[in-house]
Amino acid sequence: MTPGADPLANLKPIHLPAEPGWWPPAPGWWLLALSVVVLTIGMVLAWRHWRRRRAPVRQADAELARISAETDAVRQLSALNQLLRRVAARVYGPGAASLAPAQWSEFLTTHAPAGDQNPLRWQQLAQAPYRGIDASDDTLSIDALGMTRAWIQANLKRARPC
Questions:
Q1: Closest to 155 measured CA to CA, from 102, 62, 94, 86
Q2: Which of 103, 110, 145, 142 is nearest to 126 (CA)?
Q3: Are 67 and 141 in contact (CB under 8 A)?
Q4: Is pLDDT of 142 > 80?
Q5: Alpha carbon distance, N-terminus to C-terminus of the chain
Q6: Would you place residue 11 in the very low, low, confident or very high pLDDT band (cuts 50, 70, 90)?
Q7: Burial of 86 (0-12, 13-18, 19+ CB in 10 A)
Q8: CA proximity to 124, closest of 100, 136, 140
Q9: Would you say 128 and 108 are in contact if contact means Cβ atoms under 8 Å apart?
Q10: What is the CA radius of gyration of the chain?
Q11: Which residues, 6 or more positions from 158, have their beta carbon under 8 angstroms from its beta carbon?
């Protein structure tokens, strides 16, 4: 090096690094993408589980709507009893659906929702298809629809999904 020479003259210009590319993403973006995928899968599985658990309720509601359109009170009460027996068989096992009318009305009373455990009402509902009713007595069938709907909603909460 010669005296008086500029030591900086021999330096090469500064080279800036290249701009970072968009691929591959930083680890934080991978973590975010993974968490979105896991969350989406979890939500889909939870939704399917909820739909599966609600399927019996939807089926019972559809059946109740069909039964409520029935004009013959004896047929309507018979259909309500059959629906109650199917729900009881699903929730409590097949033995519950094969009970005789007296035990059936006791079973309905025992498993009735709170505040609706009047044995006489459930006995009327359980025995109405067998004893027949007056054509003018439509208050029982209207009340029976509400009783059945409340009983099914209260008891299907105990059912396990398919």
A1: 86
A2: 103
A3: no
A4: no
A5: 89
A6: confident
A7: middle
A8: 140
A9: no
A10: 35
A11: 91
pLDDT digits (tens, 9 = 90+) for 14-58: 889 888 888 889 899 999 999 999 999 999 999 999 999 889 889
DSSP 155: H
Amino acid at 6: D
| Angle, alpha carbons 83-85-103 (nearest 5°) | 140
- In one-letter notation, the amino acid at residue 52 is R
Can you state the angle between helices 73-92 and 139-156, rounded to 10 degrees?
A: 10
Q: Tokens 């059946």 — which residue?
A: 63
Identify which has the larger pLDDT, 149 or 137.
Answer: 149
